Amino acid sequence: MRTRISKWGNSLAVRLPKPFVEELGLADGAEVEILVRGGQLILSAANREYVLEELVEGITRENRHVESDWGRPKGREVW
Fold first, then answer.
1. What range defines the domain where residue 23 resides?
2. Residue pLDDT, tens place only, 41-53
3. pTM surpassing 0.90?
């Protein structure tokens, strides 16, 4: 699919067609990675980088896993 580069302030912008946006699950404000490789401009959805503190904040009584019983130690495990 072809699209046009347009002026946006002092920069240039590429409009992303709706089917591509939907396929990648992008939204306004989403971060993307841009690289130039072999004379090609490559634009891809950025992988979210998680921070342990953010993940721990999301733990609630409702989504917390129950403790698992793994049985007695079989080797030199330290419990």
1. 5-57
2. 998 888 878 899 9
3. no
SS (H, E, C) 27-74: CCCCCEEEEEECCEEEEEECCCCCCHHHHHHCCCCCCCCCCCCCCCCC
Pairing of strands 5-8, 11-14: antiparallel
Per the rule left: phi > 0, alpha: psi between -120 and 50, beta: everything else, 60 is beta
**What CATH number is associated with residue 27?**
2.10.260.10
Q: Residue length, the chain?
A: 79
What is the reported pLDDT for 25?
Answer: 86
Evaluate whether 25 touches 45 at the Cβ level (below 8 Å): yes
Please indicate, yes or no, if residue 74 is contained in any of the structural domains. Answer: no
